[in-house]
Amino acid sequence: MKIPRNAVIVGYDGSPDADLAVEWADRAAVQRSAPLHLLTSLYDPAAVNLSPSTAWYELHLAELEQAVRDRLVGLASSSVTHELIGGPPVPALVDASAGAAMVVIGARGHTQAAGLLLGSVSQHVSRHATSPVVVVRRPEDAESRRIVVGIDGSGGSAAALDFAFAQAGLTGAPLRVVHGWWHTRPGRVEGLSNPINDIPEALASGERIVAEALAGRRERYPDVTVETVVVPRPPSVLLTEESATAALVVVGSRGRGTFKGMLLGSVSQDVLRTSRCPVAVVR
């Protein structure tokens, strides 16, 4: 099936987090006047090992088709398409991301253990997709509209900041730009463009990073309310704390200090696991 160009693509498996992902994706598609495309996979890794019968597959297919029909009811998007595939969802979602506005997935699907905070599909898609990926979970503060974005002066955080500004502009949400750093040993400050030894100097450097990042973007988005935070806290800890009162946390896929060749940096991985609201990973 040909997926519409610049569609908002959402992976759907009938799980509670997938339902939340469809709701989030539907709003995003309406905000962008973009088509919405649901992708559902029949693939069940547990069933593959059991060599299920044709009757099992037919029952599974019927259940999924009914779940999709139910899920499509009441969507606000003007253009909605759906695709049912037989193979694993990760390669299909990653391939579809090449021409997508974004890919939206639930934090955990039906096959994930109850104690896990992040499922394997969301982990792999957020690592390998070429478009922004939004991993959706129920926000701790359901009333919050705030968007939080973490920056460190890297190219990855610049892309995250662009996404966050655009999302705030589309939704009218306030934007909170945060910058944190950590200590690798007493008296030494890491997480800045150049490691330094003095805390006041680190604060000043952090303020410069934020000011340089915002230069020009405030002018492009004059209606977006922006608040900045520069504090000596490890970035992943700071963003997780911020997520408790946010509607969305935005991170770059890789920041400063990430080894060349890594597809997802340690901060973005940590935030995906521990965030208390949806997370957008941007390249």
UniProtKB/TrEMBL annotation:
It comes from the Bacteria. Residues 7-137, 145-283 form the UspA domain. InterPro entries: Rossmann-like_a/b/a_fold (IPR014729), Universal_stress_UspA (IPR006015), UspA (IPR006016). Signal peptide: none annotated. SUPFAM superfamilies: Adenine nucleotide alpha hydrolases-like. Belongs to the universal stress protein A family. PANTHER family: STRESS RESPONSE PROTEIN NHAX, UNIVERSAL STRESS PROTEIN UP12. This is Universal stress protein/MT2698.
